[in-house]
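User: Could you check the structure of this?
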Amino acid sequence: MSNTQYSKKEFEKMLADTLYKEFAVDFLTATADQIYRAMALVCRRLLSSRHKKFMSRTYGSNSKQIYYLCMEFLMGRSLKTNLFNLGLNEVAEQVLVDHEFKLESLYELEPDAGLGNGGLGRLAACYLDGAATDALPMTGYSILYEYGIFRQRIVDGWQQERADNWLPGGGVWLKSHPDQSIEVKFDGEVVENWENGFHYTKHQNYNSVIAVPSDMYVSGYDSKGVSKLRLWQAKAPGFDMDSFNGGDYGSALHKNASAELISKILYPNDNHTEGKILRLRQQYFLSAASVGDIVHNHLAQYGTMDNLPDKIAIHINDTHPTLAIPELMRILLDDCGYSWEKAFDITSRTFAYTNHTVMSEALEKWNEDMFRKTLPRIYSIICELNRRCRADFEKKFPGDQGKVDYMAILGEGQVRMANICCYVCHSINGVSKLHSEIIKESVFHDYFLYSPQKFTNVTNGIAYRRWLLASNPALTNLLTSTIGDGFKKDASKLKEFEKYKDDSSVLDALAKAKLENKERFAAHLQKTTGQIINPNSVFDVQVKRMHEYKRQHLNALNIAAQYLYLKNNPNADFLPKTYIFGAKAAPGYYMAKQMIRLICKLGAFIDADPAVREKLQIVYLEDYCVTTSERLMPASEVSEQISLAGTEASGTGNMKFMLNGAITLGTLDGANVEIAQAAGIENEIIFGMRTEEVNHLHELGYHPSSFLYNDDIAREVLDFLEQGFNGDSFHEVVNNLCTSDHYMVLADFQAYRKAQENLSELYRNTKKWNRMSLMNIANSGIFSADRSVHDYARDIWHTQPVL
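Assistant: Sure, the predicted structure tokens are below.
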């Protein structure tokens, strides 16, 4: 075992020493908050020590390092996971009991780290965990957001955004290193000249922002590996004393505030010019600081950049960190004196890119004038990249100017981030088998024709121990009693559980574990919100970012249809259902906010109707986060994965549901395809159009009215919502569905209702339902982040574990 082995007495001494040194208290006088902070510091110091030893072995074995750049890392809480991975959870609990503290209570003192929003950030966090477990030397890079994404409040159905001030409680996990700060330059102009055959550039009249790093460590399970997450905080280079002494206090303070705005909030609203500029500055800030840090460390170790691609791999997770590519080119050209050809070769062999969207409109593009003013030297490098890529494309596709223009890095007054990645990076991967095929066939089809060898697939994975071992002890105990504990290290061992698929006693035990989890979740919900739900109802769950393509409104339409059915048939034999939603909408996304309002208002309306509320209920989980997910996943029975086929890249929530025995009710989209293949399509409830049918309907011309004409229930539901209730109308949602319905909700509505009916029939057959649940659990091992990271290491990064 590589877990830290400490006796109760040793751990108690470490904790007592930390309490005294940091807070001048002992166990008798310490507050719960001081105990939490002391335990966090003990874990942090243990991880820091293990990381130093791990990196010594990495350099000693001449191993390749991985640098993973992502705009967000949705880390959740750290104390529980780190104690668990370090093998200290039991001894910590014993020590605390002796001093009349509860470990579970301490967990509640830690806020979720405000560093991410959705699946992209959670995936990045899972890969830090997976790399540490696989003993691969990985460093993640992101921004130290002071206020995270936002704290969601629902007021009269509307989402309101509040600052998420997470650092006072979460900052204990961070160790600042101001001595390793990086200067990042914005604005100004670039002067270029040639002297003695060498090209020189000078960036002048620029504005500096200082990137100050703080480190957070991520432990691996039963492994000597430790990952590091380096987070950059924006600071002004100094204080403008001249303005201040001259009485111009506002100007003096404004310069500081403007610089430090970069690391205030994740994804600032960008439906105005100032927001767009701030996002661009954030992305270059992350890219320049991270590449500067990587280069500094590499040169300190090797003294040359010639071997950079052999010693490191830089991975760009979605297009946000794309500017790391021209930033490395800038360093190689301007600071190291390489030729363009040599600099491009080093850069190309160093970078790989993961695409996370199938929708071309979601690929980032920046206004060229704004880009030129904000990043003048990077813009000049991109202009040369554009000139050279156009020449390459013209050779490959002679006479096809349309294709060249579409693939170019600059075009239509825009700088195209995804095209930079596709042209420069040596590897381009999607995140599910379906998604990887779609990007080759549509989004990046021309680039696939240009360089097919670059394209590959790595299906997403999850840090499964967080959602199973640490969150679902009832199921973990059942698995351990039936198949042993090998699955705790190797998720593929879960497959052994399949041999119990027809064992009535195991199926009964599985049902008992699920009911326990539902009761626990219901009790927590009542305690924290006052809302009472029935643990004997079906827990049907849809939790993900609020977005039209994810089609939470399709779910809401069906609930409305069920409500109307129950009003018309009060004595119907109806299986009680609790529909649970959790999602944040982007602050500037009006239709997503309207969808939240529809769900919340519909839930309140149903709850006020005594004739229906015992059979039908909606729960909207305010400020949904990782910690809420850890409580919800074990209690969930139905996993709603109902995006329009061909729009979801992969999904990772679907994997967490599967691991905890929920049945997927979904379209054949993203990783749903592989989930159905792994567990058997008969163990999921699949509905709706396939990707080919969606594409065909688009080609024919989709008219939602043609589906409404033949669907009485759809018309009744939309009329009900248009008319509204309690003074609320939902005209915007109804009008959107009737006139455009971009994600074909009405085309799939009838099939979705049929799938929900099928679900109810299956659920009534308890043995069959439990068997389906078992088959999902037993076949979920393939979706472990350990496997995903191993695939990246083998096929893209070309590196081996440090043992």
